[in-house]
């Protein structure tokens, strides 16, 4: 059996980042930058107020309380028209430009109207009473308070989140250079599989893997492509795989990768691809096929549903994220505490136990999600983490254990 790290390194070496391209910012969520983002302008480009209130000369309110004459009202998006002189103030709304002459803002809650103003309707001069003194710059956002022109904003390899997209829009960018999402074809194989909802005949099972793997691909921010369900027929399997290779950037198959007489996926991929058939020192998901057909990576995952999901998480997901330019494509582990015994038997493998992880005041604790058989999909569905249990007799309650958080 091969160590997990050796196999994963083999996979990642053959899943290089795809050629970058420019996409609209609106379509870039979850993608990874392929070039540096440098600010071409300052944010904000003009000094503005962080509060509704009155723009004043700080020197005029040193001896507050004091009364000032209101010379104009400035709304966000409108340029000031009047310079604030001695004894004057401008009413100002959050985000509006600080008028010439003013160097501070007094929040509206620390002021009151003495006389006149729009609400009075009598045409009298509006007088505002400022109740507190404020220093220069009070509630003023200066030019470049967030970013200066020429600032290195995001480097190559940055995964773009909602906040990143907001920054790009703030800089006036409509497109961004990224590594594109690969199209990932998903194929299930096996005479025993049905997916039309009809009653099962003896020996048949319903195909859950294809839908599960398509969903996992979607969650990995790639473009899932359903290649359907193929029976155990070499010609049909070859047609499905070659069609997928022509239209997709990677292929994920489920089933037919062991050493049995009816593992036709293995026979087909041996004929048309450059594949490696591996037994990995893990449980579940020991069998793995990986290689290329042409230059398209092909992940041959085991057919048991839990094994298929775990194999996707450990090998296919990192490989696909590597193709998307992620500098760290492998999920990190976090240390948790076992809330109960996590037993196992020594067998020379690392076990990935399906667990429920719960945050606590001291960190994270985990407990079994249920049955640990590779066919027990219900427990896998309930799990939000995989406990990485090394070879031995397991982890005792209260002991430390590394976990991969799936959710």
Write the layout of secondary structure elements.
Elements: H1 4-13, E1 21-24, E2 32-33, E3 37-38, E4 48-49, E5 53-56, E6 66-74, E7 88-92, E8 104-107, E9 111-115, E10 127-130, E11 140-141, E12 152-154, H2 162-170, E13 175-179, E14 183-189, E15 193-194, E16 205-206, H3 209-219, E17 223-230, H4 234-247, E18 250-254, H5 264-272, E19 274-279, E20 282-283, E21 287-293, E22 296-301, H6 305-323, E23 333-338, E24 342-343, E25 350-360, E26 363-368, H7 377-382, E27 385-389, E28 394-395, E29 400-405
Parallel strand pairs: 6-7, 14-17, 14-18, 15-16, 18-22, 20-25, 23-26
Antiparallel strand pairs: 1-13, 2-13, 3-12, 4-11, 5-7, 5-8, 6-10, 9-10, 19-21, 21-22, 23-29, 24-28, 25-26, 25-27, 27-29
Notes on the structure:
The protein has 7 helices and 29 strands. The protein has 407 residues and is α+β, with helices and mostly antiparallel strands. It has 4 domains: 4-17 and 181-323, Molybdenum Cofactor Biosythetic Enzyme, Chain A (3-Layer(aba) Sandwich), CATH 3.40.980; 23-40 and 147-179, Molybdopterin biosynthesis moea protein, domain 2; 48-141, Molybdopterin biosynthesis moea protein, domain 3 (Molybdopterin biosynthesis moeA protein, domain 3); 333-405, MoeA, C-terminal, domain IV (Beta-clip, Beta Barrel). Strands 8-5-7-6-10-9 form a 6-stranded mixed beta sheet, with no helix packed on it. β21 (287-293) and β22 (296-301) form a beta hairpin. α1 packs across α6. The longest helix has 19 residues, at 305-323. The two termini are 29 Å apart.
